[in-house]
Specification:
By secondary structure, the protein is of the alpha/beta class. The chain has one domain: 2-enoyl-CoA Hydratase, Chain A, domain 1. It is 46% helix and 23% strand. Strands 1, 2, 3, 4, 5, 6, 7, 8 and 9 form a 9-stranded mixed beta sheet that branches. It is globular. This is Malonate decarboxylase gamma subunit. It is an enzyme of class 4 (lyase).
């Protein structure tokens, strides 16, 4: 789904969302309140400039509109694989974006992420995945890396990883697997405005991903390990 269609299905004509290249920004009126909308489009690679632009949008909202909800629209192919961005400190820029989103949550802003097209790797980790709740459209594509790349990194045969991905969501791409693991809270179907309304009302401000993953059978040990570490401390 392209972003203009998505914006219309979420807000009708009550939005002021624009694209500056790959950067989406603006605001929308929803149920009598204003929502800041930030994100990316065109399968954007997240480089230093784009990460800092999104961070600026979050910080402007904290300064000018305390408590205003923030909706992050995610469509990214991951971090920008370019020497210039590496030299400029892409790791620090993306960490800064994540810190800004975390600060917004701590200051009482409800932050929601919505993967509407594609979400890969670090471009996803420091945006929608760090929100209070991350959601996705059923047709969206989410993965950390393709199986051939995973095979190269892990030194395991691709056939073995393919077999593991059939039964273990941790090894498998796809939105349903990320729901099973708890990374995606729910899929938004049919009336997207109804889905947004429910998410604004019901998404917890505490991190429930490990517990959700255990309950859904997709991430069976994380919650238990976290509990043991906390008790040991």
């Amino acid at each position: 789904m392209d972003w203009p269609t998505l914006a219309h299905r979420l807000f009708g004509d009550a939005h002021h969302l624009v694209a500056d290249g790959d950067f989406l920004h603006g605001h929308a009126e929803f149920d009598g309140q204003t929502i800041t909308v930030l994100g990316t489009t065109n399968h954007a690679p997240i480089g230093v400039a784009l990460a800092l632009a999104q961070a600026r949008g979050v910080l402007d909202t904290l300064r000018d509109h305390p408590g205003r909800p923030i909706l992050l629209l995610v469509d990214t192919q991951g971090q920008q694989l370019r020497r210039r961005d590496e030299w400029m400190g892409i790791n620090r820029a993306m960490a800064h974006l994540g810190c800004c989103i975390d600060l917004a949550r701590r200051r009482g802003h409800r932050v929601l992420g919505l993967v509407y097209d594609q979400a890969l790797s670090g471009g996803f980790l420091t945006s929608g995945l760090i929100a209070d709740g991350c959601f996705a459209l059923p047709e969206a594509e989410i993965r950390v890396m393709r199986l051939p790349a995973m095979a190269r990194v892990t030194k395991l045969p691709e056939a073995m990883l393919a077999a593991l991905s059939a039964s273990n969501p941790v090894f498998a791409p796809g939105v349903e697997n990320y729901v099973a693991m708890g990374g995606v809270r729910a899929l938004w179907r049919d009336d997207l405005a109804v889905c947004l309304r429910a998410a604004l009302a019901d998404t917890p401000v505490t991190d429930t991903r490990a517990v959700d993953g255990a309950a859904r059978g997709g991430r069976r040990l994380a919650a238990a390990v976290i509990e043991r570490v906390l008790n040991a401390a």
